[in-house]
Amino acid sequence: MKLNEYLAKNILKNEGIPIPRGFISRRPEQVLKKYKLIGFPLVLKAQIPIASRKKRGGILFVKNLDELKRHVFEIFSKNISGYNIEEVLVEEMINIQREIYLSFTIDRGERKYVFMASSMGGIDIENIAKEKPSIIIKIHIDPLIGLLEYHVRKALKKLNISDIHRENVRNIILKMYNIFIKYDCELIEINPLAISSDGRIYAVDAKIMLDESALYRHRDLIKMVNYISRKYSYVELDGDIGIMSNGAGLTMATMDIVKYFGGNPANFLDIGGGASADAVKNALKMLLNKSNVKVILINILGGITRCDEVARGIVKAIDESSMEKPIVIRLMGTNEEEGIKILLDRKNIIIVDSMEEAAKRAIKISREE
Fold it and tell me: What confidence tier does 226 reach under pLDDT thresholds 50, 70, 90?
């Protein structure tokens, strides 16, 4: 489970890693009331769990009050890759002199942790890593032994960290590893770790992914995770059949079977386990508003997800949306009969018994449109 940036930074701050001054806001009016706590220039950062926010318009730089008044309403009105912007992190703008990339993750093939670092950080690190793989420092760590001092010395030498910053960067690496272990992370990443023009060091952007199966050990994170879990997972594709399902595996299987029978999925949309009616409503309304989507295929296998709750969300979405599109639904599992009853008399809804039939019906409709 990926934490939004401000939540990841709260963990970093609590463990002693310096971050820029900032505050989280859920309304444009809050930003306009509190911006003086930061001053100009500042940065508005949309809090959504996707990469490349800057390239997608999710990070805006603000130099004065006129720009703030314009940009703050602009960013809250955006929808980026299926995510409405509900939270914005407002931060001081750091005058960056140098950017460094640091991360800890798991190499499952080697059954070890891996520490990665690069002297070139920033938004294009993935492309840089592909074009110049030699600039990525990769050090495997035996989980039974842990991070050792010589691992850190080796990285600092290859990063060419100056003597004046060496001890600070060393401490940040050690604290990152402690967070990685303490919180049962699948990933912790600072990109970039910035050295400012006045010689200070900040985690300008941070990413933390938690192992959901270990959350029972972290009661302090439960409230945080409960909020994040209301978000759905969405990836846009270039097809014309909208896909909505519960669980990443089932969603992928639904996309695969559509492709197998000759159709083209328009997206990956996983509403997750135990989705509420409102979560279903918001996800479906987003698909209904996609101009490339001709038909929507909903494939639900109810366990902790209740079919009647899903059905109520579908009805809400249809009632609140100005767009009408055919919807093919396979609904099976907890409260299945109640869910089907809710949907039976609704216009443009086709209820089927199997994934195969759902895929074939959706493909046929997409070709007729």
Answer: very low
